[in-house]
């Protein structure tokens, strides 16, 4: 998965297909697929909807055990990780451009906003951990731009945990979300995405000044932990639930607008 468009941190993602895709919303509401990312040449990548909509599994729990302080889950989907961290009493916020994803996360008891990672977010520069799970390191189709944006979201020395592709790949492409069993054409325009394996992500992160904090695998899933090299400023505030997310009560969004703080 990889898009050719380059994104600059602070600019909204040009990929509204995740937000408006009927197949994606339907899959999240039902809790099952099939659902695929389809490349323009017809290549299909199956998406693990059932796992995303289930409770956090043992592999997920191991990742969550590694999280530090206040956690931002980018592309939280149906909210299994946000719900688990919230149940542990952790400060956590999920963001997703899909109304269905936000609604499901809130229904599980988690905090969630309908927002792109490239839009303004609460707690910028004060998050202790950012999660890019389930292939979300491909958001926007430009891993370098996404790494730069995440660095701006994290507190100095903050932790990024990213789930990488299980194969050695580094590619950009344009994709659509499809349910190939219904016989209908894909909804929405192709949008940029990326697929990146551990080796390529470590190479890109190192070039951008990130420090490797760890890498591991479980079954077919692979993970990388990166430490931000951004230095503290004298005006920086520590993250806490009051300043970060206490007022983030999702309203019912319109079809084309993000959830905004109440």
Automatic annotation (TrEMBL):
<feature type="compositionally biased region" description="Polar residues">
    <location>
        <begin position="237"/>
        <end position="248"/>
    </location>
</feature>
<dbReference type="InterPro" id="IPR029063">
    <property type="entry name" value="SAM-dependent_MTases_sf"/>
</dbReference>
<protein>
    <recommendedName>
        <fullName>Methyltransferase type 11 domain-containing protein</fullName>
    </recommendedName>
</protein>
<dbReference type="Pfam" id="PF13489">
    <property type="entry name" value="Methyltransf_23"/>
</dbReference>
<feature type="region of interest" description="Disordered">
    <location>
        <begin position="227"/>
        <end position="262"/>
    </location>
</feature>
<feature type="compositionally biased region" description="Low complexity">
    <location>
        <begin position="227"/>
        <end position="236"/>
    </location>
</feature>
């Amino acid at each position: 998965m990889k898009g050719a468009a380059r994104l600059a941190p602070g600019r909204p993602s040009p990929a509204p297909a995740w937000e408006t895709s009927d197949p994606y919303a339907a899959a999240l509401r039902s809790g099952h697929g099939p659902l695929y990312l389809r490349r323009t040449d017809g290549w299909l990548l199956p998406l693990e909807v059932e796992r995303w909509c289930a409770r956090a599994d043992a592999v997920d729990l191991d990742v969550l055990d590694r999280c530090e302080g206040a956690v931002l889950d980018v592309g939280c989907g149906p909210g299994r990780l946000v719900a688990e961290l919230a149940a542990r009493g952790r400060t956590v916020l999920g963001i997703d451009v899909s109304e269905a994803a936000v609604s499901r996360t809130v229904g599980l008891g988690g905090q969630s906003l309908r927002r792109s990672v490239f839009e303004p977010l609460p707690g910028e520069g004060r998050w202790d951990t950012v999660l890019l799970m389930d292939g979300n390191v491909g958001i926007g189709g430009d891993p370098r731009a996404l790494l730069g944006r995440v660095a701006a979201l994290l507190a100095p020395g903050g932790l990024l945990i990213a789930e990488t592709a299980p194969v050695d790949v580094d590619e950009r492409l344009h994709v659509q979300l499809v349910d190939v069993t219904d016989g209908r054409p894909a909804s929405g325009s192709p949008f940029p995405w990326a697929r990146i394996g551990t080796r390529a992500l470590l190479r890109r992160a190192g070039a951008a000044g990130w420090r490797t904090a760890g890498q591991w695998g479980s079954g077919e899933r692979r993970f990388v932990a990166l430490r931000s090299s951004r230095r503290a400023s004298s005006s920086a505030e520590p993250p806490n639930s009051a300043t970060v997310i206490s007022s983030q009560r999702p309203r019912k969004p319109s079809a084309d607008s993000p959830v905004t703080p109440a």
